[in-house]
Design a protein that fits this description.
about 300 residues, alpha/beta, 5-stranded mixed β-sheet, two-stranded antiparallel ribbon, 9 strands, about 50% helix
Length: about 300
């Protein structure tokens, strides 16, 4: 993956050295957070173990401090800086590309989100979270939250390395921002309050698959301007999409699959919807059953 202009976003908040202790979770005051696939219990446990964190602390909602949490990054400072630079490049391109898509395809004005880099734990308008939940988007403050160690886990635990795999992760979260701007997240949040758990999970899957599709739309449109894909890049994105499928994670870490519990979609679905977005690069091709039609 290469860039023609290497424009870096300035909409990044770097909280990696803030050292603010994480207190007891206060719930989700600003709406439900959405993520790459790490909000399920399985990935919370897996990433917690991989990063040396006691999963019982996260699941039990115990109180954390910078001492008791025991988090230690798997990356050197140089590695973190290199990854952060790639994040700035990808985010910068999403800003330019989605502004064009909104104007040309939707007749609307795109509003840039912020991206927060943090280490270990973070406060957001959607509540407090540890790195073990993976990247997530908070609609209440229009910010993407990312601990760079997720990319370490993506490579080491899920065998999905590469800069375009990382770009897929970021562009998926930006896909949730697009959904927020278009009212889709509000629609889902309102509707799921009256649904059974199985039906709510089905709607959650639709939301995640559409975000995958939007990631593909971004990639397709970006190639007309700044993004240059190289040999193997698409395979990196497909591997990443497949690695965070609900069925893959469940089979890997519990040995069996429970489709009714899916909240993000199967590996095949995630790959298929990303490819769907890339085929034509049109927002209208990302309309999912159960979600409002866009475009």
């Amino acid at each position: 993956m290469r860039w023609r202009t290497e424009r870096r976003s300035t909409n990044i908040e770097d909280r990696r050295s803030s050292g603010i202790p994480m207190g007891r979770s206060s719930g989700i005051p600003g709406g439900k957070a959405t993520g790459i696939g790490g909000l399920g219990l399985l990935l919370v446990i897996v990433l917690a173990v991989a990063m040396g964190v006691d999963p019982g602390q996260i699941i039990g909602g115990t109180e954390y401090t910078s001492d008791s949490y025991g988090y230690q990054s798997q990356l050197t400072s140089a590695q973190q800086d290199e990854l952060a630079d790639n994040v700035a490049l990808v985010l910068g391109d999403t800003e330019t590309t989605w502004a064009t898509i909104f104007e040309d395809q939707l007749g609307k004005t795109y509003r840039d989100p912020k991206l927060v880099l943090y280490t270990g734990y973070v406060d957001s308008a959607c509540g407090q979270a540890s790195a073990a939940v993976g990247p997530f988007y908070c609609p209440a403050d229009e910010k993407v939250y990312l601990d760079l160690d997720f990319f370490y886990a993506l490579q080491q635990e899920y065998h999905a390395p590469g800069d375009f795999a990382q770009a897929y992760v970021i562009s998926h979260e930006i896909g949730h921002h697009v959904q927020n701007l278009l009212g889709t997240i509000e629609y889902v949040d309102r509707k799921t309050r009256y649904l059974s758990e199985a039906d709510a999970n089905e709607l959650s899957v639709a939301l995640e698959l559409q975000a995958d599709c939007y990631a593909g739309v971004w990639a397709k449109q970006a190639m007309y301007d700044d993004l240059i894909l190289e040999s193997g890049d698409l395979e990196e994105a497909m591997n990443a999409a497949s690695a965070v499928g609900d069925d893959t994670l469940q089979m890997q870490y519990q040995g069996y699959v429970v489709p009714d519990s899916f909240t993000h979609g199967s590996s095949a679905q995630r790959v298929s919807w990303f490819k769907r977005g890339m085929d034509a690069g049109l927002v209208s091709d990302c309309n999912c059953p159960g979600l409002p039609a866009i475009g």
